[in-house]
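Render this sequence as a predicted structure.
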Amino acid sequence: MKISYRWLTEWVDTDLAAEEVAERFTLAGLEVDSVEPAAASLDGVVVGEIAAVEAHPDADRLSVCRVRGDTEERTIVCGAPNARVGLKAPLATLGTTLPGGMKIKPAKLRGVASSGMLCSEPELGLGEEAGGLMELPADAPVGTALSEFLELDDVVFEIDLTPNRADCLSVRGLARELAAIADCPLNEPEIPEVSPETQSRIAIDLQAPADCPCYVGRVIEGIDPTAETPLWIREKLRRAGIRSLGPVVDVTNFVLLELGQPMHAFDLDQVSGGIRVRRARSGDQITLLDGQEVSPDEDMLLIADHDDRPLAIGGIMGGLDSAVSDTTRDILLESAWFNPAVISGRARRMGLSTESAHRFERGVDPALQRRAIERATSLILDIAGGSPGPVVEECVEERVPVNTAVRLRLERVNRLLGTELRADEVGSILGRLGMAVRQEGEEFHVQASSARRDIEIEADLIEEVARIYGYDQLPVRRPGGRLTLRMSPESRLPERQMREQLAARGFQQIMSWSFVSLDALDALGMAAGAQPLANPLSRDMGVLRTSLLPGMLDVAGRNMRRQHHHFRLFECGACFRVENDTFVERERLGLLMLGAQRGEHFSGRGREVDFYDLKGEIEHLLERNSVAATIEFRPVSLPWLHPGQAAEVLLNGQSAGWMGQLHPALLDDLELGQPPFVAELDLLAISQRELPLHQDTGRFPAVRRDLALVVPDRHSAAEVLAIIKKEADKWLEKAVIFDQYRGEGIESGSRSLAIGLIFRDVSRTLEDREIDSVISRVVARLEEHLAAKLRG
């Protein structure tokens, strides 16, 4: 926000220089980014008055003017269309260097000598109106230095405010802050009520009281459309970085800067019946002041008339059709309080950035609307005349926010700040901030002013005491207490180590947004339990992700569009879900494989990655880290995975995630040319590992027996191995499937599995009869439970 030092001093009696004010603001948490002069040096530019105007003898578009200035009357050739007798305008005398670098010298223009220059606003760096000379008030004293007349010996502060300090987005708020910081008087001007001269009024219908509980309007009839904004208002606006657009708009901008209340003025002839405040509906369209035609989303607030024609998007921008023009004589002033939740993010969604939205989405003082109407009415009547009607106010009191009293303990203040402040010092600081303070011994009950929506708990008040007392005045002490080191259990695999292992296997880590589109989740069948955001950054980031898959697919799609077709991705991150009315957050590991299993090589043709490549990577990761569980892959049906290539990952019988090929039906919508293989695992479950234990390998030989079993396809290899390990007793050291066969000699619907069983006892050599007994028991159980048979 930009504001001038002189404007601030109109509200605050202070002896502090501008640089000191900037330092005090910064130390109090209102960071001043820059302190710049209000105007470039204008030495040699004075107030001039045109005493006579004659046509140039040799040029139709030039005039020869006799101009009174600082010491003498001089002849100046001028091409401005508004040059006329009696006009007072800036006069650059000989020897003056203008802000653009032009040096004023004696010159001849088409044969006529010219001794100086009459200036426009851009030539002096004082505005953008280049259509003629800068017109000064009729009472401007001739010969006075322009810098002195316009009080240009001023500086402009550019202040970077944090989002919680919306109360300082105005001269009023900054003046209150300066008065509290410097402990000096605040001269807040009286804003008297303007008595109505007519009974013209409009009806206000609040159809969305939760979004707009307070709306104030006033009709002013018969304003002068030819009136011009006074120079003192134009100068204040210019120093704040706002261009003059005519008296009515300038007044609403002036009130916005002065009081912090955004306002708008409608052409009354374009308002049918009255004002209706409602949510936007399907089919609503409006052309905004910047010429953009938009269809507001249904979560946006509309200001419409009683014919339901949209007039403005509430809190953001007015409509072009109902805007005040050069011919407008009757206007409707509006001043409202909008719930920040219904304004926040909406302007960005439409690519807009307005002063009104900037304030409304941070929170405007809910007690300011009527005062702003009175102030704007008074200024408009002074500038453009007119007859005001009564103020019409529609307010749903129970919806207007009210600050509640917050308890503050002196002992807590001194304990957190390390100070030894007395109760009267703390009370004085809070009082200077405009807060209502009730003291009971060393305890305070404090109610912040309506403008301070950020004061909610005791810590907020302690922060205010620290700011005003001065962060630089707080004592410097070493922190007390004792720190204890919490050791991570060895049985928990550090996430960093897992990331390094995946990177070593050729996976690249990605980090995607935790916010995703509800439509993206719904397309994958993952929308159940998604938590919507109260204030999303955009429509495409409306909910918290329930899975890492949407982010990985988005990254994969963008890489494929850049002609990268072979890659492996992984991501570690939190996923969120509402389960049984409880918000649950879980850390997950996502994997994605796409393209060739290995790069091109002269030794042989590569192949595309498949289901078993991804399964192998998961098995390698789990076995490499000695995961403390029995690992099993079981077929599963999930809407986002290929029906025949999907598995649930089980650890000790408990689900730890899923893996498989992305469903082919999703490829077109996601703009993926080929199906990726994806997996998502519970990070906590796969991080629990067995600690290494010493085990004697034994001096006695192992015995290996190979079995060829015909197993029905409906039973998985994991089921076969599970029965073998259960029945093979303590002697079984390892069981491995080393071959699979389908074809001649094997009945349809079955397959032959070749399984190697390795037996060993650490204390003796096993005998054949012992091994035969175990093998017989294993085969019997396999035949009983799985209908498996030894291959003949």
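Summary. The first strand starts at residue 2 and ends at 4. DSSP finds 21 helices and 38 strands in the chain.
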